[in-house]
Amino acid sequence: MRNLAIYSHVDRHVDQIDTVQHVCVNSLENTVYMYDDGIVYCVSQEDEHVLEKFSVKEHCNEELKSKVVAMSYNSVLGVLCLATEAGDLISLAWTTRQVEVVGSVEQGLRCMQWSPEEEVLLLVTGQNVVMAMTLEFDPLWEQPLHQAVFGEQAFVTVGWGSKQTQFHGSEGKAAAKQTPAISEKPSPRDDGSVRASWRGDGSLVAISAVKPETNTRCIRIFSREGVLQATSESVPGLEMALAWRPSGNLIASTQVLPNKYKVIFFEKNGLHHGEFTLPFPPGEGIVRELSWNVQSDILSVWYENIDGAHLLLCSMGNYHWYVKQSFSFSTKQQLLACTWDPEANLRLHVVYGSLQYATYEWNWLVNHSSAFAQINRAEVAVIDASDVLLTPFSEKVVPPPMCAERLQLPTNVNQVVLGLPSCPDNVCVVLSDGRLAFFQGPNRSLRWVRNVHVPMENQGRPLLLHHWVWALDQVLLCVATVGLTSHLVWLHLEEQEENEVLKAGILEVPLDGSILTLTPVGDGSLGRLVLQMASGGLLLLQLEQSGQLSCSVKPLACCPERLLQVHVLQICDSRPPCIVGLSGRSRLYVDGREVANNVTSMLVLPPDCLLLTTSAHTLLCLQLHFHDQEDVVSCTLSEAVSRRVERGSRLVVAAGDRVVLQMPRGNLETITPRALVLKQAAYNLDRGNFAVVFDLFRKQRINLNLLVDHNPALFLQHTEEFVRDIKNPAWLSLLAVELSEEDTTKTAYADVYRGQPRPQELPWAEGGKRAAVCTRLCEAMDADGSAALFLPRLTALAVGLRDPGAALAAVRDAVAARGAAARDEGLRHLLTLCDATRLFRAALALYDFPLAALVAARANRDPKEYLPFLNELQRLDEAYRCFRVDAYLQRWECALAHLARCPDRFEAEFLPLARERALYAPALALFPPGDARYAKVAAVYGEYLLKERKLEEAIVMFRRAERWEDALEASCLAGDWQQALVLLAKLQYVPEKRLESLRAVSSVLLQQRRFQEAALVLFRHCSCVEEAVSALCQGRCWAEAQQVAVEAMRPDLLEQVKQGIEDHFEQMQSEVANHRTTYEAHLKRLRIVRTEKLNQPQEKDGEVGPESDLFSDTSSTSGSGSGSFQSGRSGSRSGRSTRSGKNRRKQERKLLSLKEGAPYEDLALLRAMHQITTACFALRKEVRALCLALLSVQCDVDAVALQSSLSSALQLMEDSRPEVWPPELTSPNALTAVDEQYGPDSTVNSIVSGARKAKVPLQNCELLEPQYRIPPQVQDHLNWKLSVLNV
């Protein structure tokens, strides 16, 4: 489905040369060698200058000094080889300017050909002897060209299926012995020359020559070692043209027959394999040469007739040969040479006239209609000689070489230009003779075929005008290349007069160099185009049509390399156009930035989507979008949605949600990529076309939740329209069944919606998406009122809202409107959606026993299972019947409510049910507070709360039940002394019993460490002064203890308080001293451990050495604690390190051990010092209070000592903090630095130098908890010191 289009064209006149006989290309130095009349010219490919020329006449025989039969350049030797008809083999070295006759054959030479790798030189002498020589021109072998044998690959047959084994009827057995006569009539135009062609790998060579005995031509295949492999079968009219396809599967030649001229192909075994007919009769031309390009996808045919020379470029697709390009040379512009570049795949070198040297560089493109059209027919145009094959893939998929519509032209076609989106029916066809054909209208009727006149010289050159595009609706733009410079030519179709010549104009645009691509911006309606120059620059061309056509040019950013395919997207009107390009090295560029490097084909889907195929055989859908504040397009392959495709697939066109791919063989495949389907669905959902999207989702098996998740608010707003547009009611049931709470834009289709704005708040309440959508569906169906929506409504209720009871109620209500048929239909539908047991229970919940019996019968349940139960229920009272139903359904709260309506069953069933199901609160709410049953329920509830140790609530329930003693007991257990005092006043206990209750309360308060409240109860309400002071001393409330002793006028208790203060001082002094001593020891040990670790290398990533104390001497794990399997010479040792959970936790505790010599001792020291520092700083408030108490009892010396001791300890910890927690340890990048130091790119030297620079060892610091890697966070602003103690 691809066409050949000119990519680069340079045509220049070469001075000093009039004609040439042989041409060869030197791709390494970008030069071309031309031979004429004993002189070799070296011409640059970049300009028209002759770099050097050299005469070789004196090195040839006097008689045949100008007759050279072949010339070839060997890049390995760097020499030019010439073979003369007299037999001289001449080597010309340009760098040293040395000419040497490296060999001479007395019989003369007829052919010379280097092998593809340029290591073997093949020669055919005048006596039809094949010779091979090495790079040093030493003979390898000699073989006669014409041999009597077929070759080593001669066919072996046992006669099966041959003529001798067939039945010949009336002809008799003698017919089996007759041999058919084979006509070997030679071609009358065969020049008798010898042609040779190597296979691409250099293992075989084909030689075409005329057999002397029959004067007919045949092809013989020799191996590299000179052994004849095969001889071609006899082909009448075989001609001299010969070309072996570089890929190796076909040998091309020509055959002339009385009624047609054909290019035929042979296999390497000599058998005829395929052919195609040339587009001219055999009497009107003769093929001079066939040649393949490097990648074997184009066959060039050089033929001549009375009008001059012609070149055809042919390619094969789906076993059909197409003529993709053709251009002619008049008799005045005689074609002298034509050869493909040995390196550049699609570059053709042509020498013609006197003397013009042209290079044509081609590119494969798909000519399809604009994707920006409002109704995109996805029309593809394929060139096949004089026909244009059109297929609209949006309507039908026709495999090539067939088509939906064929446009026939008077001569061969070179380019097809399909119309802009505003005029999609316009088609302009560029013919090989330079004329234009214009088709218009839906039927594509031919309006005219006219010549084009350009006001410039060199009108007769072939392919003068190229790169045709529609610039505006009626304006065509093309490129004319003269020399090394391109010119823009415009053609206005409406302004042309009714004559046979179209007058074109030249735009005055300053261009430096040749144009490679010419691409419209967006849909092309604004007259803007992007030009890619050969120098790499990009230009934005703006056409303006105000009377005379004018233009302005604006330079754009350059691309790093030349682009073969360029598309320009206008993603946003307020932003600059986005340039997307694909280079010849499969690199994809977006605005000059490389995005991918393995892209094989590209397709643009407006306004902002790309379809790509990659060499990894995947199809990618890539979204383009601008940054918020920058004019830069952002896209990465990580955001692309991919799917697998067949190997070698290439994009042809996209039609709606379908993509047409062409396989390497040429056949087509149509797929619907999920990303493209979702893009099409999103387009329709935004416009409210829910029915169209629903049908699309069903066909593509896409989750129907996306109908809602794409835009929930929009769907809920247009639910009525959605229900009205859905013609099949079953689709509504399908949606209700498939609804779930999952947001598919974040799960299944997150790749497609990545980077797109999503609603922050969802338009449904706590019930969720399914409930909200099904509720709206039910409302919309109720508003519609159609009887056809009866079953979808049942589905929404039973499945969507998960309320089969409401669905059964709807079935029951439908009986009155539609009769028993609706009931049967509804029950049958519900039984397919819901479990029969669940539906039966839902019917019971409605207390509709006939309906329940009908459901059970429809579900084919055994009547013995449900009829006795239903009959028993119907014999009961209504309240108790409802209770039995609810109890059966385990709806205990409803059952309790119905049972409360049966007063005679309160004690026997109500209270036991409330106890069994713990339904105390619902039971309490069923009775008024003054009811006796309320008090009983409250009492039972209080006992339950007391058992559950919910004492405060138990007090409330006991008080409501007026069980005061139980409430007092609960308050004593809870330590609620205020409630206890209130209840004691209510009970009016005797003093002894009252005192006993208060002591019980104080005991609980002491257990709860509520010392001040316990002292208050003992002192104020029990008059127990000693116990009150003891409680305050126990809680270290020294000031309150002194207050109680003074208030009770007990000076003896002051001594008790003083003694408590002194005991507290001794304890605090000892604790501070212990903290300081331990911290100093840890600090000293930390310095030693860090020094040792810096002086010797450590294990990385938590590896534990064999001397680790984590393993006992009998442990089966050695070398590493990572649990990996260790093999080798360990013998009886096992590599398994699997441990139980208990052992694993034990190992984790032992990991950071303070034992000297432990592998992670420094980390254990850090943790211990962190804990000590935190504990010391936490003592500041307590020490301040104790110092005040010491001052109050005249213990000033002790107060000074305690404050000084803590102050010095805290100062020590503050001073050592930078040393213990250095900045490199506390920085957030500490772990990253370790990974970089010991990463895969590190070396021994880098690790050693890093260890020397480090002040502390950072490895394995991830084993320490994060809170211990930083210094303790303390309140530095706390003023805890007493100024009177600063002595």
List keywords for this structure.
single chain; 1287 residues; alpha+beta; 5-stranded mixed β-sheet; 4-stranded antiparallel β-sheet; 35 helices; 58 strands; 27% strand; elongated
SS element count, helices: 35
Show unreliable segments. 1098-1138, 1231-1242
Could you tell me the mean pLDDT?
Answer: 84
Which oligomeric form is depicted? single chain
Please tally the β strands and state the result: 58
Q: Rounded to an integer, what's the Rg over CA atoms?
A: 50 Å
First and last CA, distance: 101 Å
What percent of the residues sit in helical stretches (DSSP H or I)? 25-40%
* Large-scale geometry: elongated
Structural class by secondary-structure content: alpha+beta
Strand content: 25-35%
Main β-sheet description: 5 strands, mixed
Strand adjacency order, main sheet: 33-34-35-36-40
Biased composition (Low complexity): 1112-1138
Pfam family, one: Beta-prop_ELP1_2nd
GO molecular function, one term: tRNA binding
GO biological process, one term: tRNA wobble base 5-methoxycarbonylmethyl-2-thiouridinylation
Please sum up the structure shown:
This protein has 1287 residues and is of the alpha+beta class.
